[in-house]
């Protein structure tokens, strides 16, 4: 068997990795949800929770309960329900998948360049066995783009510890890496007064430490 040159080997690994990521996204989007009828204001997070897909939400305002006509679905795929959300109650947003992480982003006009603070590049991200919410908080606070409110939102939750080491990435990419590594959480980023708020919501059951 002919050996690959170092350059060819690197190209092969990159292509294989890209194919693997695409397959993972496709599988996640094909997941069927037996019944979906969320409360207004929490549709995206509820869908990701039910499908067990880590996600990120760049919100135009603080998420919360609202009275509006929602959507319902029975035995429909995650992709179908996401399409329904951005065509209906979340029409000011678009969705996309990023290597296993579902993202909900503000809809922009054609050709309009993003000016989101989440596109700020950072030189390095290094966390070893750190709580996911604390890692997200420190990244945003050190970059001066946000402060945190609470790492538990919408009920008592438990958060996992993660190890992430990245170089030359955007804040958005770093947040995606954190929830991807955790596997059971969602980052939320929204404007507040003259700054922004960042928090992580976890779907992991809370497990108190027994002494």
Q: Could you name the key traits of this structure?
A:
Phage tail protein beta-alpha-beta fold, 2 domains, six-stranded mixed beta sheet, globular, two-stranded antiparallel ribbon, 10 strands, alpha/beta
Characterise this structure.
The protein is an alpha/beta fold and 211 residues long. The chain has 2 domains: 7-107, Phage tail protein beta-alpha-beta fold (3-Layer(bab) Sandwich), CATH 3.55.50; 118-211, Phage tail protein beta-alpha-beta fold, CATH 3.55.50. It has helices at residues 6-29, 43-51, 78-87, 132-142, 171-182, and strands spanning 32-36, 55-58, 73-77, 93-98, 101-106, 121-131, 147-148, 161-170, 185-192, 195-202. The strands form 3 sheets. A 6-stranded mixed β-sheet has the order 4-5-2-9-10-7, with helices on both faces. Strands 1-3 form a two-stranded antiparallel sheet. Strand 4 (93-98) and strand 5 (101-106) form a beta hairpin. Helix 2 packs antiparallel against helix 3 (78-87). The radius of gyration is 18 Å and the shape is globular.
Q: Mean pLDDT, nearest integer?
A: 82
Distance between the termini: 58 Å
Percent of residues in beta strands:
25-35%
Give the overall form.
globular
CATH topology annotation of the largest domain = Phage tail protein beta-alpha-beta fold
What top-tier CATH class of the largest domain fits best?
A: Alpha Beta
Radius of gyration: 18 Å
Strand order of the largest sheet: 4-5-2-9-10-7
CATH architecture term of the largest domain:
3-Layer(bab) Sandwich
Structural class of the secondary structure composition? Answer: alpha/beta
| Helix-strand topology string | HEHEEHEEEHEEHEE
The total tally of domains equals 2
Regions with pLDDT < 50 over 5+ consecutive residues?
7-21, 152-156
Tell me the helix content: 25-40%
The biggest sheet amounts to: 6 strands, mixed
Q: Number of helical runs? A: 5
Number of strands: 10
């Amino acid at each position: 068997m002919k050996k690959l040159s170092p350059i060819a080997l690197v190209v092969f690994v990159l292509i294989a990795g890209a194919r693997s990521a695409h397959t993972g996204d496709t599988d996640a989007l094909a997941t069927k949800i037996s019944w979906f009828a969320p409360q207004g204001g929490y549709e995206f997070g509820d869908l990701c929770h039910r499908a067990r897909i880590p996600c990120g939400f760049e919100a135009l305002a603080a998420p919360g309960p609202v009275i509006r006509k929602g959507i319902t679905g029975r035995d429909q795929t995650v992709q179908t329900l996401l399409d329904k959300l951005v065509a209906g109650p979340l029409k000011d947003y678009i969705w996309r998948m990023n290597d296993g992480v579902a993202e909900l982003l503000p809809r922009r006009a054609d050709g309009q360049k993003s000016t989101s603070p989440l596109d700020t590049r950072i030189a390095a991200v290094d966390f070893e066995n750190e709580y996911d919410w604390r890692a997200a908080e420190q990244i945003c606070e050190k970059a001066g783009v946000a402060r945190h409110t609470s790492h538990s939102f919408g009920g008592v939750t438990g958060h996992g510890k993660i190890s992430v080491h990245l170089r030359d990435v955007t804040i958005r990419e770093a947040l995606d890496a954190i929830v991807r590594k955790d596997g059971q959480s969602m980052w939320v980023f929204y404007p507040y007064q003259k700054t922004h708020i960042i928090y992580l919501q976890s779907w992991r059951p809370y497990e108190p430490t027994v002494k």
